[in-house]
Structure formats: C-alpha cells, structure tokens
C-alpha cells in the first residue's frame, strides 16, 4: 500500500527491488496511477482511512487475484521483505491447513514504539476463510 505522493519517493524502490521476486505484485493507492502502475481504491488519504484502505485492498485482491497465489502479503511502501526467507517460513505450512490462521501478523523487533513497529501481514484466501467478502 502506498499514497500518491510516495509513488516515486518510496514505492518505486519496492517495485524495483524485492517486489520483483513476487509471483504477483499489486500496488494500491487512494488514487489510480496507470503510469506506475498502482490501482486506485477510491478512499481518502490519511491515517484515519488506513483501515478502510486495507479492507478495500483485500477486497480488490480477492476479486482480481485470488487464483494467482496461495498467500498474499500486505506491505507498506517503507517495507523491505526477503522473499526467500518468507517462502522458507511458509513452506512447511499449507495455506489451507489448520496450523496457521487465515491471517498471520508477525511483529518484527525494531527500536520503535510498539504502536508504530513494523509487521508483516499474510492472508490466505482459501474459500473457507473468505466467506462474506464481496
């Protein structure tokens, strides 16, 4: 997830580095940016809209990409992910199995206050887990 003002200053570095190793990489923003490309979600920008923006992003991924992968990673434009390590971590866990929840939030140790600490959010969009998502 990114914001229109961060496309060139942050999101392009994600796109040009670790996102290349993703099977599918989708950038979402409050406004569409076909030149980047980024999908516009039609929500207002700002911290007060993060929940709505996240829900809209998940709905978009569910509608457009649910058959493309078993796991989906929600990351912000200031995140760096070592995908080989993440794949290794997930390899032992089937996405539709009982040993991982449909949503896993893994907090990362950093020197920031807990409310602002970075984390990795993973979603498995199995049919059982996605009932009720429009």
From TrEMBL:
Fringe-like glycosyltransferase domain segment(s): 7-96
InterPro entries: C1GALT1/C1GALT1_chp1, Fringe-like_glycosylTrfase
The protein's Enzyme Commission number: 2.4.1.122
Domain of life: Eukaryota
Catalytic activity: an N-acetyl-alpha-D-galactosaminyl derivative + UDP-alpha-D-galactose = a beta-D-galactosyl-(1->3)-N-acetyl-alpha-D-galactosaminyl derivative + UDP + H(+)
A GO MF term: nucleotide binding
Listed pathway(s): Protein modification; protein glycosylation
Pfam families: Fringe (PF02434)
Enzyme class: transferase
Primary site of residence: membrane
Membrane topology, from the record: Single-pass type II membrane protein
Keywords of the record: Glycosyltransferase, Membrane, Nucleotide-binding, Signal-anchor, Transferase, Transmembrane, Transmembrane helix
GO annotation, cellular component aspect: membrane
Family: Belongs to the glycosyltransferase 31 family. Beta3-Gal-T subfamily.
Protein name: N-acetylgalactosaminide beta-1,3-galactosyltransferase
């Amino acid at each position: 997830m990114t914001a229109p003002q961060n496309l060139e200053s942050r999101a392009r570095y994600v796109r040009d580095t670790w996102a290349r190793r993703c099977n599918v990489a989708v950038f979402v923003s409050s406004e569409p940016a076909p030149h980047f490309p980024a999908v516009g979600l039609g929500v207002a920008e700002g911290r007060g809209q993060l929940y709505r923006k996240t829900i809209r992003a998940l709905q978009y991924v569910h509608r457009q990409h649910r058959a493309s992968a078993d796991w989906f990673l929600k990351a912000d434009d200031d995140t760096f992910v070592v995908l080989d390590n993440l794949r290794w971590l997930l390899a032992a866990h089937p996405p539709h199995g009982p040993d991982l929840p449909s949503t896993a939030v893994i907090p990362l140790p950093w020197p920031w206050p807990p409310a602002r600490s970075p984390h990795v959010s993973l979603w498995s969009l199995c049919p059982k887990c996605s009932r009720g998502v429009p």
